[in-house]
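Deliverable D4.2, example record:
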Amino acid sequence: MTNVVEVKVGLHCDVCIKKILKAIKKIEDIETYNVDKQLNKVIVTGNVTAEEVIRVLQKNGKNATPWEDVLRI
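Output generated by the structure prediction step:
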């Protein structure tokens, strides 16, 4: 089953983005991934959950929250 997972994460510089992309690439069953630097948003599609993506980002020292939570504020 393909899911679209969107999370908010601090994208401060190119080094941060490279670390994030490297971590995301290691997640099993992803199909595509993208980073929107302007919105501080990471988008991952595949057989993955928001919790999995957030866990991977947090292991790499990044604070991440589900995009839906951002929209509610």
